[in-house]
Amino acid sequence: MSDLVEVIDTNNKGIDVLSIRKEFPVLHQEVNGKPLAYFDNAATTHKPARVIAALKAYYEQDNSNIHRGAHTLASRATEHYELTRTRIKEFINAPSAEEVIFTKGTTEGINLVANTFGKKFIREGDEIIISTMEHHSNIVPWQMLCENNNAILKVIPIFNNGELDFEAYKKLLSPKTKLVAVVHASNALGTVNPIKEMIDLAHEQGAKFLVDGAQSTAHLSVDVQELDCDFLAFSAHKLYGPTGVGVLYGKRELLEAMPPYQGGGEMISEVRFEKTTYNTIPYKFEAGTPNIADVIAFEQALSFINDCGKENIQNHESYLLGYATKKCATIKGFEPVGTANDKVSVMSFNVRNTHPFDVGMMLDASGIAVRTGHHCTQPLMDWYGIEGTVRASFAVYNTTEEIDRLYESLVRIAKRNN
Amino acid sequence: MKDINTVQDEIIGEFEILGDDKESTIYYIMELGDQLPDFPEIEKKEENIIKGCQSKVWLITSFQDGKIQFLADSNTAITKGLISLLIRVLSGRKAKEIIDADLYFIEKIGMGNIIGSQRSNGLSAMIKQMKLFALAYQSKIDA
User: Fold this and answer.
1) CB-based contact A357 B26, cutoff 8 Å
2) Same domain, yes or no, for A279 and A400?
3) Does B54 sit within 8 Å of A357, measured CB to CB?
4) How far apart are CA B15 and CA A348, in angstroms?
5) Domain containing A72: what range?
6) How far apart are CA A309 and CA A315, in angstroms?
7) Using one digit for the tens of pLDDT, what is the confidence trace for A90-137?
């Protein structure tokens, strides 16, 4: 308890973890006879009661298809749906709500850019730059695009501590570079990349820059105008919101110049058999009935984050990461993977002579949820010459007491083979 | 040698002592795996890998005095423990006994709850492979 008090009193004025935990019904359960300690937040965070209530309220009171409805329920649903767009605009400080496109998630956002911007603007011999630490969803769409358009994919190397080789990045940039697509914070290592400097350098060469914000948006303040990024993709479910909702921010002039992604309802202006004209942004990119309920509920997740305060969340998580990293480093056989100076709250590691799956199963038996494997970053794991890692990722509702339990379990696990 | 069902009942008894404590159960399964005889490194090749398992599982057989001997290894300790249970029940037996074996101990010890559905599929793949080996030997005998 003393550790927890320390967190509340000295490190996080304004954050009361115990009150926050009360907002998350799922946390209050036992798993395998032990209280749940959930450290798989980089995969998905849990949802506060207000998000769950918003989902329920939508279906109980407002369920209706949005836009063009001539009745009250449709108006209410539309109003709530568009309110989320406005809140996201504020959350990332986009110049306008029209530059906020709803998607299924980060993956779809990246695929949208690859299939529209890529299709129109990436030509034979053009170069796209990604990094060694990308998630598969920020590798494969570009590979597919390069294959189709005869473009070239370049990869920024990293150092052993999981930081990008910035000098190598500078050398890769050239007038041939048309797009740089790099993760803001690595899901597998936690590394926070110097994205602002990278964007500025890409722009000097006339290249556009896509930020994969799947991990960073939950932990850091992301201001698209300050960063001056051309695209930012992220997912609601890693931000205490529902699954199946994502956001793609794009600069207006780019979105307007890009062809539509999918054809169907909503994205059109006029349909004639001879010719169809397309709707304005953002609707041009939102064909079909969207995920209305989850988009509406996402607004409540953003309200939760605002109530906590982004800076408070960041301070708390950073304290937890430091606490866990320092404590676990004392375990014989504990091998951290990714030790960059600037990290989000991801602790990736292996236990010597023990397969990550075994570590995950043993922790689960103690009620502790982590993720094990390659974390959809196989090229990164290959670079390290490992099959995978164990990943404990912390969120605003985690406590040092939970980390103490993780530590104690890891001590037992490490003893088996070390 | 004890018959298949006696061995299964012994395993059920051991797991009953462990009760509902998943941690002790998992550690016990891993300990069983640790006791498996060494697997020749040279046999850790693609063709000996059982398909359908999340972890890597290598399985080889030999046929002595009309009986099939199984030897296995895995890159994860829990999976190695699981296959060690199957080996304990099925190895050193006639092909027909293996083919006809009703492996009720898996359900009785609640293996599905212990290892989860994905690994249960892997366990089924191991059993299938062991029975396929037995079928192949049996067809040789019949021929």
Assistant:
1) no
2) no
3) yes
4) 33
5) 52-306
6) 10
7) 999 999 999 999 999 999 999 999 999 999 999 999 999 999 999 999
